[in-house]
Every structure is written in structure tokens, then in C-alpha cells.
Amino acid sequence: MNGNSLKLINIGTLVSYDSEKGSMASRKNLEIVIEDGKIKEIGRNLNSADDVYDCKNKLLTPGFVDCHTHPVFFEDRHREFKMRVDGLSYHEIAENGGGINSSVSSLRLSSEINLKNRIKTRMDNFLNLGTTTIEAKSGYGLNLDSELKSLKVLNDLKSTHLIDIVPTFMGAHAIPIEYKKKPDEYVDYLCKVVIPEIAKQGIAEYNDVFCEEGYFNLEQTKRILDKGCEYGLTPRIHADEFKNIGGSSIAGILKCVSADHLMKINDEDIAHMLESNVTAVLLPGTTFFLGEKDYAPYEKLKNAGLDVAIATDYNPGSCNIQSMIFIIMLSVVYMKMEISEAIYSSTYIPAKVLNRHEKSGSVEVGKIADIIIWDVSSIIEIPYNFSINPIRTVIKSGNFVF
What we know:
- The protein folds into two domains: 5-63 and 362-400, Urease, subunit C, domain 1; 64-353, Metal-dependent hydrolases (TIM Barrel, Alpha-Beta Barrel), CATH 3.20.20.140.
- Strand 8 (206-211), helix 7 (218-230) and strand 9 (234-239) form a beta-alpha-beta unit.
- The chain is globular.
- The strands form two sheets. The chain has an eight-stranded parallel sheet with strand order 5-6-7-8-9-10-11-12. Strands 3-2-1-4-13-14-15 form a seven-stranded mixed sheet, covered by helices on one side.
- By secondary structure, it is an alpha/beta fold.
- It is built from 15 helices and 15 strands.
- Helix 6 (183-201) runs parallel beside helix 7 and helix 8 runs parallel beside helix 9 (267-275).
């Protein structure tokens, strides 16, 4: 955008959360004026602007907010994908030297600049696929120096890249090999050494734990999340992905902002989450990528009254998917989401998870101008055309990405 203001004309349909109505809304034949990166006006026959863009009667939505990703890794794990295609399970691959710990050595050895360049490329891809705000976790360093390096790179990119990055500390992603036979000592290390230093440097907003059999049990999870809360890190949790060991229930007890995955959640867990207003973050891409059959029970969660977000879970091992368009397709086909619900769950609800809903997650006056202009006319055409990326252009903070 050459000037300070931009006017979008000939908008066919705008689909976005509407704060006044408290629900999703669809409005036709509109114009939008953007000034200094924010939405100034929405309506008809609006004032002129420095630049004008013709939307040609196509669809507009907010930019996607991806509230669960693991993009801070150095090498990919395509060899594990081959092992899975050959019939090994996620756990069998981990037992054969794969899994989270297989990403640790390469990240620890990587230089900061090389790591940053790889993550920058991934952030470019996210933007081109319509994601304008992203939560990004550490968790492939699993020691103080490498976790600090991971979060420092995220914070450097946060200040230079167009995409909005929300950093999460996830030192509790797995037990590193050097602590394999003494996991409680690793938890001590996280609580006494790593979390205080992360908080001191102010380079993370959230603290996440993989609460799962073979990773962190309930007692360890509680210790790590409680310690993070002492230092001002908001708690989140990976729960009920492969087995139900009570992770989503403890999410309610500890008042986590979200519990993520939830393929094995039960009614008691849902009640605990509802009582504490914990958001369910569903990751159908992981179920798909791992070749599993049981998707998270979206309808049960929704009918119970929980807020539900969807996200990519982009990572090198269990979900090499960056496209929220593809996640929407999986959500409507396999989790039986209505398409308007899928848009809501990929924009406004995840913005609430990340505490960004006052300034992003919807196309409304006063908010940051994060907008997707589509090459389609209706929202059902988004998942229908998932294989060709039906985005015409992305606007981030009032600037054209492409």
C-alpha cells in the first residue's frame, strides 16, 4: 500500500464474527476503509482513500489465527513418515529413535541464524496460506540454552516479520535422553532453572506441557504449570491425545486457558473444563497425518457449551501441515463442523485463546486489518477448493502480503 489509507470496494460477502451480535455474521455488498493498519470504516459509499482495491464481488474473511504450532525445529522428519507408511505407530517410532527427541540434537547443534532463516521461511508460508497470527512453541531444545535460543529466535522474528507471533515455552515437550531414567530430575530442572530464566527474559507468554503416558504424568504436569503460573506464564496443556490419563480434567482444575488434542476425552473431563471455561483446541490434522480413525468429538464438546478452536499443530513429526484451509476441510468432513463454525473456530475463538480477540480475529471497526480476500464467493468453497489454495490475496495489518 503506497499511501496511509486503503479502500476495499466491491466486496461480495464479508463473513466474520460480529461483537454486537455475539455471533458470526454474513454481510453483502460492502466497502472497507483501512487507515494506518486498522479498520476505520465498514459500510457502503464510504469516503475515498489513498489506494483502492477492487474485490470483484468475492468473499472476505478475517485472517486465520493458528493457536497451536511447533515451528521451531531444524531438520524435518520425513524418514519417520516413511516408517509410519510402512506400518509403525507413533510410539513404535519413538522407541526406535524417532519422535520428539530425534529433533533435539539438530536444534541444539544449529546456529541461531540458520535456525532463524528456516523458521522465517515457515512463517512466510503461513502468511501465504492466510494465517496472520500464530502461536509458536519451543520444545525441541529441552535444555536451558536451546530453549532460550528457540524463544529468542521467535522474538526476533516477532519484531521483524509481518505475521504476529505469540511465543510459548514448552520445555515439557518430552523427557530428554540425558534424563530418560530420571524424569523427576528433569522436572526439577525445568522448575528451578529453566522457567525462572525464561520468565526473567520475558520471551514467552504461555507455558505448555505434553501430559501423556510416556511423557509427563499428572503430578509432573501440575508442578510445571504451577511453577509457570508463579512466574506469570499462562498455562496450556496437551491432553488426551493417545490415552486418557486425566489431562483435560487437570486443565480444568488448574484453569488452563486451553486443553489441546482431546481425542480421548470423556464426559467427566468435559465437565471440569466447562466449570473453568477452558477452551478446547482440536487438531484434526494430527489425527489425519498419523492415519488414526478417531477424531476429537467436536459435537459433544460444542453441545456441552465449550468454546472450540481448531489449529494445525504444525510440527516435523506428527503433522507436517501449515494450511488452515486444509484443517477446515478436515473439520467439516471428519468432525462434522458447520462451515461457519469452522471459520469462527479458526479466527475469533483462537484469538480469544491467545488473548488477541480485542484487536484481531474478526473484521470489525478499530481492529487490525488482517483480512483474506478469496477467489471464491461463498465460505463452503474454501474447503471444497482446499487443494488449490483459493486465496486471492492476504492483507496483514493493512499491508498486502502478495
